[in-house]
């Protein structure tokens, strides 16, 4: 047993909670919680609204960082509109959690995403582009979700996602997904092929044509 004088971080502690503050947004004033990943030093954020630790299922979004979509209004993907819709839904309900996971470009990083977009400009689809660069189609990991939610006192979710991998990733954790809520985003001329590839090659559950 470590004594109280030893550092807080231990080998099995993948994530360290740092601090929290208020984050006023267009839709609500969230609580923002900062975490740092022990192994990599990567910084991650959770936004919460209302009492999320009362034991009842929490409306939730597990959002992986996409700088171009989330901050630069890119129409190459649907990340920005999904983030916005999730925050709006949480604000409307007055209760929920959004984990903002720093795994840019489905885990390949920002510069590699630019390389991948260039290959897509030349005709590859999003999966082929990643593979041509030597990456798996999707390198995202959800291993930090459990310690982040645990810290926030959350054990069951009403998960907003179109991605069955996220739902199955939760199965191995002590997190229950009580409900799956799709986020249907309108297609445009730039994201049409991307969204179709997500359905045909990555198993996403979107049915925007219905
Ligand atoms: Zn994106």
From TrEMBL:
Cofactor(s) it depends on: Zn(2+)
Record-listed GTP binding positions: 61-65, 82, 104-106, 126, 161, 166
InterPro entries: GTP_cyclohydro_II, RibA, RibA-like_sf
Keyword GTP-binding: yes
Active site residues according to the UniProt entry: 138, 140
Family: Belongs to the GTP cyclohydrolase II family.
Protein name as it appears in the record: GTP cyclohydrolase-2
Organism, scientific name: Undibacterium parvum
Name of the gene this protein is made from: ribA
